[in-house]
Amino acid sequence: MGHAAPPHGDSQERGNSGVFLMGMYEIQVLDGWHNVTYADGYQGAVYGQTPPLVNASRPPGQWQTYDIIFHRPRFGPTAACCAPPG
Fold first, then answer.
1. If DSSP codes are grouped into helix, strand and coil, which group holds residue 64?
2. C-alpha 27: how far from chain center
3. Which residue has the higher pLDDT, 67 or 7?
4. What CA–CA distance (Å, rounded) separates 19 from 68?
5. Of 24, 52, 53, 58, which is most buried with the most CB atoms under 10 A?
6. What is the per-residue pLDDT across 19-32, written as a single tens digit (0 to 9) for each?
7. Strands (E), the chain
8. Confidence band for 48, pLDDT divided at 50, 70 and 90
9. Which of 1-15, 36-50, 71-85 has the highest mean pLDDT?
């Protein structure tokens, strides 16, 4: 395997992207290896709402994947939320 270029930038400036669910929830995709950012901005977080359970980042140049398990919110007959997303 070749050598990866060292990462540049800090916090949200490093490899920042996301996966959107239902047009409302963004699962954060971020280079988090030795990269301090705010809790709900780490990779795997529901951006702006819930931090990830762990920071499972691997070093630059190593293949990394994670699974997203998302349960949509459920609404009652009055459109009030009965079960939040989880």
1. coil
2. 4
3. 67
4. 9
5. 52
6. 999 888 999 888 77
7. 17-21, 25-29, 74-75, 81-83
8. confident
9. 36-50
Residues in the chain: 86
- Report the distance separating Cα 79 and Cα 54, nearest Å: 33
CA distance 55 to 43: 7
- CB neighbour burial string for 31-64, b if at least 16 within 10 angstroms, e if fewer: bbbebebeeebbbbbbbeeebbeebebeebeeee
Q: What share of the chain is helix, strand, coil (3-state, %, to 5)?
A: 5, 20, 75
pTM of the model: 0.72
CA 11 to CA 32: how far, in whole Å? 8
Q: Which pair of structure tokens corresponds to residue 8?
A: 């540049």
| Nearest-angstrom CA–CA distance, 58 and 34 | 9
